[in-house]
């Protein structure tokens, strides 16, 4: 999943726009993420069966490090971009702390994202994510876009677009420093893209135009 995610990010920066190789990396990464958490959902010790690209694969079910919060976060974003309900379903059923506690600085954001998708008190979870975001301003690394997520939770389309522009500007500023521009993450902000695609599927107009927001992927996110 990680390899396909990185290929997707590298190809997202190509000037040719949304290509079939890019979409192929995206879809495969999303399927792999969903499969990982289907295996985690199975009774530990049993054999779990998943299908990827027409191939039926079997794995011994376990809830180890692979099903931790980082991979849950990535898999969820990929599923929100593709918009495939079957990929999102096991992620809603599990959550970032399903296999083990999430001790990272991103934990409140991940909890808020899961609460929003599961419909379990997302307002309180979003407030905790915003509080963590405020604390993290001097921590020296970028945080996921808690303000952007909070506007989804509140159902505020206009403020969502403003927050999206701010999140992408913060992303641009961060990756202009030193050698960060050569990092695969520089091409796009996966969180912002995922939430924007989801907003489109809600029927919202995403008015922000940015090289960090591939328009082909947004346009493919048809409203439900």
Describe the structure.
This protein has 224 residues and is mainly α. It has a domain at 104-224. The chain contains ten helices and two strands, in the order ααββαααααααα. It has helices at 2-12, 20-41, 69-82, 85-93, 107-118, 122-135, 146-154, 157-175, 190-201, 215-220, and strands spanning 47-52, 55-60. A hairpin with a 2-residue loop joins β1 and β2. It is globular, with a radius of gyration of 17 Å. The mean pLDDT is 92.
Low-pLDDT runs:
none
Q: Which percent range fits the helix content?
A: 55-70%
What separation lies between the terminal Cα atoms? 27 Å
Outline, from the CA principal axes?
globular
Largest sheet: 2 strands, antiparallel
Which whole number gives the mean pLDDT? 92
Number of helices: 10
Spatial order of strands in the largest sheet:
1-2
Please provide the ordered H/E string of secondary-structure elements.
Answer: HHEEHHHHHHHH
The amount of beta strand, in percent, is 5-15%
Q: How many runs of DSSP E, i.e. beta strands?
A: 2
Our Rg estimate from Cα atoms comes to 17 Å
Structural class: mainly alpha
Key attributes of the depicted protein:
single chain, 224 residues, 10 helices, 2 strands, Imm49, Immunity 49 family protein
């Amino acid at each position: 999943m990680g390899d396909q995610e990185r290929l997707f990010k590298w190809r997202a920066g190509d000037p040719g726009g949304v290509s079939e190789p890019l979409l192929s990396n995206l879809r495969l990464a999303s399927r792999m993420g969903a499969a990982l958490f289907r295996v985690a959902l199975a009774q530990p010790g049993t054999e779990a069966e998943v299908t990827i690209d027409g191939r039926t694969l079997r794995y011994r079910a376990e809830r180890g490090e692979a099903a931790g919060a980082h991979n849950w976060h990535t898999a969820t974003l990929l599923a929100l971009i593709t918009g495939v309900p079957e990929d999102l379903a096991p992620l809603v059923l599990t959550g970032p702390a399903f296999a083990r506690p999430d001790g990272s600085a991103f934990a409140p954001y991940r909890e808020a994202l899961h609460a929003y998708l599961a419909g379990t008190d997302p307002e309180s979870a979003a407030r905790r994510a915003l509080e963590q975001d405020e604390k993290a301003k001097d921590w020296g690394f970028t945080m996921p876009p808690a303000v952007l997520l909070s506007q989804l939770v509140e159902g505020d389309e206009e403020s969502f677009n403003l927050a999206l522009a701010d999140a992408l500007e913060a992303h641009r500023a961060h990756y202009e420093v030193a050698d960060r521009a050569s990092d695969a993450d520089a091409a796009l902000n996966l969180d912002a893209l995922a939430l924007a695609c989801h907003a489109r599927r809600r029927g919202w107009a995403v008015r922000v135009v940015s090289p960090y927001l591939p328009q082909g992927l947004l346009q493919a996110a048809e409203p439900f």
